[in-house]
Every structure is written in C-alpha cells, then in structure tokens.
## 1
Amino acid sequence: MMTGTSKITLAARRASGADLAIIAGIELGGALLLGFFLLTDDWRLIVALLAVFAAGFALLQIRPAIEDRIVSAFHAARAQALGLGAVVVLVYPFMMQGSSYALHLLVIAQLYAVLALALNFQLGSANIPNFATGASYGIGAYCSALLAIDFGVSFWLTLPIAALVATGFGFVLGFPSMRTRETYLALVTIAFGIVVHQLLNNFSWTGGPNGLVGIPAPTIAGHSFTAPIELFGQRLPSQANFYYLAAALVALAIVCARRLHDSRVGLAWNALRCDELAARCQGINVVWYKMMAFAVDAFLAAFAGSVYAAYVSYISPDNFTFLVSVTIMTMVIVGGMDNTLGVIVGAFLLTLLPEKLRIFADYRLLFVSVIVILFLILRPQGLFPQRPRSYGGR
Amino acid sequence: MDAFVMQNLMNWLVLSSIYALVALGFSLLFGVLNVIHFSHGDVSIVAPFVVLATVQALIATAFPAATPGALVLACAAAIVVVGLIGVLADWLVIRRFRNAPAMMALVATVALGTVIRELIRMIYPQGSNPKPFPNLIETRLMIGDLTVPVFSLFVIAVSVLMMIVLYVVMRHTPLGMRIRAVAEDRNIARLMAISPSRIYAATFFIASAVGAIGGIFYASYAGVVRFDFGIQLGLIGFSAAVIGGLGSMQGAILGSLLIAGIDTLVQATMAEGASYRLVFAFLLVIFVLVLKPSGILGRTVMEKV
Amino acid sequence: MSGPVLEARNLSIRFGGLVAVAGVDLSLSAGEVLCIIGPNGAGKSTLFNLISGIYRPSSGSVHLDGRAITGQPAHRIAAAGIARTFQSSRLFTDLTLVDNVVIGMHCRTRSGVLDALLRPRHARAELEAAAERAGELLRLVSPDLYQRRHTLAGALPQADRRRLEIARALASEPKVIMLDEPSSGMDDRDTDALIEDIHMTMAERPGLSYIIIEHDMRLVAALPERVMVIDYGAKIAEGPFAEVRQDRRVQEAYLGQRAAHA
C-alpha cells in the first residue's frame, strides 16, 4: 500500500533512466513473449512461455513492491511509455514473418479486448452482471452486415449506425435494472442474450441459422482490406488491414475507459458497486448510471461486432451465443476488474490460450476451463487488481 | 380437439415435472449456500450417461438380455453417482467461493459446467455424438380415444413424490432442520454443534440426486441425450427457480409450471412453434422479473439501514 | 427567508401491520441543532430514512425550504440539500478517502458520460478541483485523515470512518445534515473529539442545520439547542435537554415504567 506522502513525491518525480529501462523492458519483453507464443508450434516452447508468464505473476504476488515500482515508472514516464507502446503496435505485424494465422489471432484477440473493455464498464466499474455483451456484439455485427449487404452502405458509415442501434438495445436491456438486481438481473441479461440469439436464428431476413454471407470488406482510399499491404518492401498478409483497424478500436476503447474511469461518471459507478444505497444518498441517480453502463457496453461491443463481420465476411447466430458472453465475462474477471491493462491481458490470454492449445486437440476446452477455475481460486483479484485513482496532474 | 388439448396438458405436466426436478436443486442450493451453482444442469445430465454405461455393463456381465431390472438398477446407480458428483463439485470447486462475491462463484461454476461437459464427451465412447436413450416405460394406456404413455404418468408421479419427500425432509426431519439452520446462519449453526461442511455435502447430494432424476427423465422424454444438453436444461431450471423466487421450493415448482406452460403453448399453437419456444420462454422470464424483481414468491428483502 | 429549513408534518410509515413512525412533526430552522433520542427500535433511523427518501412515507409531508420533497427518490433529496450519515457507517470501502469525499460532491458537479468522453479536459479539471476541495475538507475534519487521503477507506479505524462519513456528507454542501448515532463505537476520547469536530464545522458553516440521533448523553448535553424524544414511532417530548430529561414519560421510556415511578 502506498502512503499519501510517497504518492506526492511520486507525482513530482521526473522520469529517470531506471524508469525508461523498466518501461522498455516490460513493453518489449511482453511483445517478445507474445511474439514467440504466436509463432511457435512447438508445444514445449508454449508451455515454457506460459511458465515464464506465470512465474512473472507469482513474483508480483509475492513481492507487491515490484508492481508498485513498475506502476510508478509508467506514471513518471507516461509519454515515453505511450510512444513506445504505439511504435510496438505499429511495427508488430512486420515481426510476424508474414504469418496470416498469427495476425488472425491478433485481430480476434484485439476484438475480444474491446468486448472485455466494454463489459468492464459494467462488471468492473459498477459490478452489474451482464451476460448479454455477446448479444450486443451480435446486434452490431448483424446491423452493419445487413446495411452493407442489403443497402450497400459503406462500412465506415455502418460502424456508427450499428453502434447507435446497439446502444438503443443497451438502454432497453438496462431498463429492468431499475428494479432487478444481482442474480435476478443476471438472469434478465441471460434471457435477453438467448432471445437475441434465437431470433437471429429464426428470422429469415437474418439468414436464419445459416447467417449472412458475403459481407463486403471495407476499403480506404481505394485500398481494399482484402488486399495485402505492401510497405517498405515488405508484404503483409491482408489480415494486417484488420489488425490495424482492430488496434485503432482497442485504442478508442482504452481512451473511453480511461476517460470514464477518471471522471465523475467512473466514480459514481464505483460508488454504486460498493454500496448502492449509500450511493443514492450522495445524490447519484443509480438507475440512470446503470443504464448508462449498459449503453456504453453495447456501444463499444457493437463496434467490435461490425469489425468482426467485415473481417470474416460471414456471420451466423452461433458466433454470438451465451457462451461467448460468458467468455467475455471470464476475461474481465481473470484480467482484473476495473483495470484497463488487466482486462486487455485477460482477453489476449483467453483468446490465444485455446488456439495455441490446439495441439492438445480434444482437451483444450477442458484445459482452459480448469485454468480459469484455478485462477479464480488462486488469484481472485485477477491478474492486475484495481488500483487507487490518482489525482494531481498525473 | 379434446384429445389435442389433453395431449398438450399432459405434455405440459411432464415438462413441468422435469424442469421442476432441476429447478428445485437450484433453489435448494441457493437457499442454503446463497450460491448459484450454474453447472447444476450439467451435473444432472451426467445421469443419463451413467444409466447408459451401467446398462451396457450389466448386459455384458450379470444380465444376459436387456431386462427392466437392469434399467432400474442403472437408474438407481446413476442417482447415487450423480449425487456424489455434486458433493465432489462442491468439495473441489464451489466451497472455495463461499465468501467470494456472487459473480466469482457464478463464473467459476460456468467454467465447471464446461469441465463436466468436456469430461462426458471424453470419457464416454464417441461422446460428441448424440446417444439414443431408451424410453423408461414403453406401455401406453388407452383411455377412451386418448393414448396416455405410462411414462408420462410415471414422470409426474415421481416428481410429485420427490417434491413431497423434499418438503417433508426439509420441514420434519432433523437433517432438514440442520440444513435450514445452516441456511439461516452458518456460524450460529456451528455453535449448535452442527457441522456446516457436512450439511453442505448433504445438500449437494440431495440437490444433485434430485437433478439426476430430472436428467434421466429429460433424456428419456427426448429419446436422445448429448453431452451439452445440460446447458439448456440448466438454463431452464435456473430460470424457473429464479422467476419463482430463489430459495422457495414452491416458487421453483411454480416457475417450472410457467415456463413449461409457455413452452407447450407455443409449440401447440404456433406453426413454427418449435423454433420459437425458447424465445417466448425467455421473454416470459424477462417479463416476470420486470414485474416482480425478486421472483413471484421471492421475499423482497428490505435493506436494513 | 424566515420559515423553517426543514419541516415534516404528520410523517408516518407502516410496514405491514407495524407502525414504525406515527405522525411525527418536526421543524428545523437554519443553523439549528436538533437531537433525536429514544430507546432502541423507537423509529429514529426510520425517521431519517423517510426524510432522506430511502423509504416512502405512508402519509405526511416533508418540505425543504418550503418546497415539497415528500416521497422523492433519495438522490433528488440529496441534491436538494439533505445529507446524512448511517448508523453502521457505509463508506465506499474499496475507494480512497479522496474518492469518497469527491463522490459526496456528486450533485455539486456536472460532468456526464459525454463530457467525460468528448471534453475530457473540462471533466478532468472539474474532478481535480473537486479533489482539491475534498482535500481541504478532510484537512478541516482531521489532519490525520488528510495525511491518509490516498489510502483506502476500508482500512480506517471506526472513529475515523465516522469522521470521513461526516466529511463526505459535508461535501455535498447541504442545508441540513443528519447524523445517525455519530458516536457509536467510539470511546470517550473519540467522542470528545467528535463533539469538537461538530462544533468546529458549526462555526465554519453557520447556516447549516443539524439533526443528530444520539445515545451518548454527554454529546446530547453538549450540542443541541433542542431535543426530541421518540418512542414507539411517536414523538413523546420536545424541548431543551434540561426540561426533556425531567419529563415523566421520557423517563418511563428510558428506564421502564416501574423505575420511573419508584
């Protein structure tokens, strides 16, 4: 636990060489670890990398001071950390040795990161159970796909429209939260998710169980997203287009998350998470803030849905089931509630792990579930627990 | 017309009975542990697989041909085994979340459900494929121009019997009193020399064993069972328990009657009923909870300030 | 403005057959301190819950500055200018002290979701200013709390929790502040400090009116101008403490019938 005084000195501190070294070490080391993980097929290496990852967290668990030191480094040299992070993200596809599979995994992982960040507003910030993020994701995907296929609307236009439509649904879903709570509210969201899934499955205009095929890919300045990127004499597979699009979306989600978290709204959500009645007595309109949480969740999830639809060009109801919602929920809890970085790491881990465990073929789902359970037992606060807000120019 | 109505009435009661057997487990576990055991449906659906496996084992050894005796024995074995699986699930996973936030336990048991489904799929030969499940009682009664499967009557009778047994056990036996004491306050119960961990084990055994009967009936009613049937059975049982009011046994039964009612009604009256049954069932769930936020018979707890 | 700040008339609530509060009248002028005493379960906290909008009264009315607020939701009443603390302190334990006090300023700040997303500088500046004021408020209530302002509220000892709750209530710049047994769980020294704190805030904010539910007779003797006694949900006496303590019915309620007659 940091004391008030150490915080103040920390705020005034200028970035030192040690800070920059820590940041470079963490960001490049993380990128390297992820890169090896994505590119290898050798299960021994995969297990070894996972062991390194786990050891890192075990170390943090035993020595919390290390985590504090890392956080303080990132606070002190925020601009440098952001700059380096942006460079890593931009350059990353060039390091993937042209592997379209690795890039595909990164696209999916990033979309799940957006979904997890969306859900984090509710589950993490406000402790509202929502098992319908998958439904908002699906509404976004179907909405933009239908607009593109049936009306020839440009992808860039479908993006905001789908988000607005899903936000509307989010409000509708948030409506019962006026009165229902906890397990009962959880069931309302489960029921909503199932109803959406079943309707997508039954309507003829959504293509029924077969879904929608031939969703056009976006183009930008005449460059189709299905074409490879040629840059600096390098040729990136077409997935790279969506990699950058998804990365931009993740950036947008992070900005939203940070801004809302460090605002009066984030505080109000945190307040009602801890004690709804006390929150009401501070003048917080609890119902309104809950509905806002539903709306923000749906808004971001729909963005992810639109990008997903355009990326895979084929969607069916089974992409948006109850289990998808549960997966997103697990990502938030495993990553760390109300911690942006944690939620993103959780999303990457739970997207990549089952894929890389394909070598265990039949056992991978079992494996992942067991890991999730062990996780909840051994590190219930998540990979990165929530940290206190900081004030005063940081 | 009359036959049609009677047929659907019968379907309604049979479905209600099956759902209620699962919903009662949810309600019981929530009432005692304040925990949503989301994998309860998956635990219950293990039962038909144990039945199938036991019947085959019996045929291969003791019983030369498929006799009713083998089936009865297999069902009894399945109920006990599944009861123990419930206890094991608690001991391995759920008990570690007694003091954790409700959401953690919920997610953990969802993951546990996946573990159970995957284990069925792996352990049972060709577990990914649907398995035909025998009709427990093939005989049909002719009443006037109405054919009544004895199986339907049997399902209803057994369910009603189980409800009565559960009620009597909970209200009028020392065990039931201990369970209720632990549900009321685990620490005070401990002072009364009641061991909460034993009570939890007993509760999990009872809930899972009753769920197992529901699972066997469900498979027999459908004529087929697959490793992932537990998701839907669990979701419906959970919904029934919640809209009835968690922790209330009467509520679980009422919720089952409602959900099975809309299910049967939609299938009987709509052209595409089969594909819309879940839509209407879960719209009903939303509708009920919007009107009655703590379920129909659930107590609205006034928060102490 | 000459009328009372807060006025409740004939306030009642029934839970099923139980009448928890029965026809209580209450009137409070600006800057006044009113103490409510009465045996356990007399309906004191329920009265607070009625005024702060947690319960909806079965009958009767509540006016703040002459404006009817009867039956309005709690967050509106808080925004209208009634702040409160709780008998068992209800802090946001997983947040820092500053966060707790800033949340108390919720209805005195404006930024919504769109401000936070689209005008982050503006929203951030508002929050920073609120945090600044929260710090000052904490310093005013207790320098010790100010020192610990970036630690989690859940880690505070009981007496400091009460202080923080009072700071949070003050943060909303209320017209009326209601303290529900502020001294419960405190030893004598803490209670003295609390009395001092309350005197200090009274000096700091002259127009602010207080309603205090209290058991500790030292505190009751030290603070209020007026005392109101509630038993079985009904008001049985009201007036200066010295007078009220002589009232036979009050003694009966507190000591039991026989003792009072003896």
## 2
Amino acid sequence: MSAAARKTRARPNRILLHAFLLAGALLMVYPLLWLASSSLKPANLIFSDLSLWPKEIRPENYVDGWRGAALPFSTFFINSFIIAGLAVVGNVLACSLVAYAFARLNFAFKRTLFALMMMTIMLPLHATLIPQYALFYGLGWVNTFLPLVVPKFLAVDAFFIFLMIQFIRGIPRELDEAATVDGAGPFRIYWSVILPLLTPALITTAVFSFIWTYEDFLSPLVYLTSMDLYTVPQGLRLMMASKGASSWGPLLAMSLLSLVPLFIVFAFFQRRLIDGIATTGLKG
Amino acid sequence: MTITSAPTAPRARPPAGRRKVGLNARQNKAAFVFLAPWIIGMVCLTLGPILASFYLSLTDYDMFTAPEWIGGQNYVKMFSEDRRYFQALKVTFTYVFLSVPLKLAFALAIAMLLNRGLKGLGFYRSIYYLPSLLGGSVAVAIMWRQVFSYDGVINQFLLKFGISGPSWITSPDYALYTLVALAVWQFGSPMVIFLAGLKQIPQDVYDAAEVDGATPVRKFFAVTLPLLTPIIFFNFVMQTIGAFQAFTPAYIVSNGTGGPADSTLFYTLYLYEQAFTNFQMGYASAMAWVLVAIIAVVTAISFFSARYWVHYGDQR
C-alpha cells in the first residue's frame, strides 16, 4: 500500500479519533462547566435544571457567597495569598541555596547528606506530623502562619532541591570557573551566575509551590484554629458545614472563585507545568 | 632558627596540592553556610520528628501532659481490638487497589491515542490534564459531592433513561466508589508522563515491527508496552504512594467523619481524628509509623517485582 493510499484510508479514522477525544474532553470538563453554570443558578434550579445554560441567572450568589459564613471571603483569600506567597519565596530561596551547594561545592559528608536529602523526598508527611505539631505548639506557633511558612524557608520540600540540582548540573562549569578567575567567591557565583540561569527551574518551583500551598487543606486544618486566619479551603469547608441546602448557590460560587487563581496560573504557565511533570514526574 | 623556619616556609606557601586543601576548607565553610537552613530543617523538622514519633508511638500522650511509657500497647490495640482501624485499612487498600490501576489504564490509553501526531495535541493534553491540577482542592471535592448527591447531575441524567440512581454520597455501598471516580478523573498527570515516554520510543522500532508484519495489537504488546515499563513502574510507585496518603476528598465528601458508616474512613482521616480530635497522639504516632511501614513495604515489593517485568534499555 502506498503512503498516499494509506493516508486517504486513515482520514476517516482520524476524524473518528478526534470525535472520540473531543467527547472525552467534554466529559472531563463537564463537572467544571456544571460548577460554573450552577454557581449562577437560583438554588431551586441547581438540582432540577440539567442544562449548562442557566434559564435564570442569579449573580447574587457571588455577593452572598463573598460575605461568607462568618467572615467575608476577602479575609480567606488574603490569608491564602500571604501563605502561598511566602511559601513560594521560601522554597525558591532555600532550595536554590541547597541545590547550588550540592551541585557545585565540595564539602564534608556530601554523600551522606545527599542520601539523606533523597530519602526525605519519599517520606510521607504523616511520619513527622505529630512531633512537628508538638514542636510548634511548644514554640507558641500554633494558630499563626509560621508552621505553614517557616518550613519552606528551611527547604523541607526536598523535591525542589533535587529538581534544581538536576538543572544546575546542566549549566556549564566554565561559567563558574570564569567567574572564579574574575575573583568571585561561591556567594557571588550563586547570585550572579547560577541564579539567573536557573530561572526556568525557579519558575517551575514557584508554580508548583503556589499550587500545592494554595490547595493544601490538611496543614491549615491542623494549625489554624481561629477563623480570621482561615485559608480559602477552610473558608469553603466552614461555609459547607454551617449553611443549609438553601445556600448551595453561594457555596458553589465561592468554590468556582477559589479555583480562579489556579486557572490563571494554568493559563500562564501551562508549558512549564506540563514540562515539569513530564521531565521530573512532579505530581500534578 | 634556620632549622625551625625551614618547615614553616612551605606551610606559608603550600605546594599546588596543598593549596587545594586550603581552598576546599574555604569551600567547605561556604557550603555549610548554604546548607545551614536545610540542615536546621532536616534535624528539627524531619529527623528529630521521625525519632520522636517512634518514641511517642510507645507512649500514651495527649499533648498537654508528659508522655507516659506504655511499650507496644498502642500497636497491640491497633491490631487486636480497634475495629475502626481495620475498617480504615480496608477502605484505604480498596481505594489504592482500585484507583491506581484504573487511573494508570486511562492515562496510558489516552496517551496512546494522543501520540499519533494529531493536530491539536496541546489542546487535548491541557484539557485532560486540567482535572489533575484542580483535583486536590476543597472546591472540587465540594463539586463532586454535589454531582453525586441524590438529586445531583448523575442521577438526573440516569433519570432520563428511567433509572433511579442511589444516593451515592450517603450510601455506605457507593460512597467510596465516588472517591475512586474522583481519583480516576485526575489521570492527567500520569498521562503527561506517559506521553513524554511514548515520544522517546524511536519510530524505527515500529518500522521494523511493521516490516515483520506485526499487527497494531502485536506492536502494542511487543514494542510499546515493554519499552514503556520503566514509566509504568514510575507512575505506579508515585501514584500508589500518593493514594495511601489521600485525605482532602474523603474529609470533604464525608464532612470530616469518614462516613457514612465509616465507608470512607481513609487511613489518614482516622489518623487525623485520633490525633487532633481525640488527642490520642501516642496512638496516632503508632498509626503513622504503620502507614510509613506499609508504604515502604509496598514500594519495596514494587521495586523487587520490577526485576521481572521492567525492561531497561541497557539490559537487552
């Protein structure tokens, strides 16, 4: 069979494949479209009207929802952004420092420390949860943002260290050597040679740190007990628990709104996210 | 004077080899400055707590009074009289054994379909990946609860065909499966990894198979699948470790209870309840250690079995 003949035979298959994939794609996003549409419907229509296009639009869901259960959602969003923002800064700074040392410097016990670092990547969070809680409780940090933020400045998320080490190993050593000849010490080299070239890995780290911290529910649930410190996920949970079935509209409106920052990050950093997962196996 | 000064002279101006040692000492110092935050974190937030957690697992501890040594009693209680603990194990293993293979099967199937030089690959990949990105959030869990509720979308849809669906979320028979479905819906991230792996398989291997008259099915089983086993293995291990630790969806869908009738009492949910609702910190520490052991054993078994089914390129 000639290539041309094969191509013409393949065409209907292609169309079929596209139809199948499009149907699948629709199925995948259907729950999200349903969420968007329901967030605009009056309560009585959410569970009776199947169509994605609301017969009757009720934007007040967003106004009512924003007022929240006990505190307005502005509080929860501000808290979430503070925590996620600090987590991003902490991970980018601390992990890049450690990664530079492992990738470029020689020091005592390097192999042992590297092995330790690799082991902590796989460690389930629960192994350390309770003693960490006891420690932070002893320090008087419970019910502050500190337990959620300080660990990031101590490079506890070892996966990002590994990611950056891999990246730094790809940067030509000649650049370091040239800088050394020019009289630069390790700190200058880190700051003016490595860090600028590390930008792609830093962005990957920043994006994943933001997403994970912003979505995280367990840690805020454990550490933040007073409502004015609640993050967005806790705010949603509070709203879900404290309101009856009549307020499904506002709850769904706030659920959708809470996903907006993630949609924005996805829109801007899609390539970086997908490459980050494809090349390093970072969990999405 | 001359005798004593002779050995000091080289010390002041060491030979090339020695100078390197001097440089290393400086580098060593610098390195530990770079490493300092991580070492503090490592000791205070990881190594210390792991050891402390083991100690606490052998005590009766409520956070507010000093831990009281009780030996292995927590472990004995866990495996002999705590029926909810067994329920948590059952729920978690069911969840892992159902969700991980299903998720990987979907991920591989869609990745295979997408890896045909299709137009719009980027578009499809983004759409299929999106649920993975959002899936861990509370918002999505709330949405899921609604979609599967008694008067939710699924049942309204079934009603069009005259089927009256059960109350998925509040029925002990189905609640866990809605959570499995939620996990499977997030097959996007392993799919992205499969896609990257499929791209690595050289076209000439397929061409050679075609010359030998291999059918598409045979090509899949004789070429694609064996060459993809390292990726399958990686995805399997990562997804399994993740699935054992699932928390948020179960917490939200069951309203923090693990209900109905403990049918969604995930291991982590029970651990949370023991630690932060009942303040049984010693017991919860023992549970945490068993969880770590379970994950370690499952991972070890996976690695051991990999020798028999994972093909690495250089082993040919």
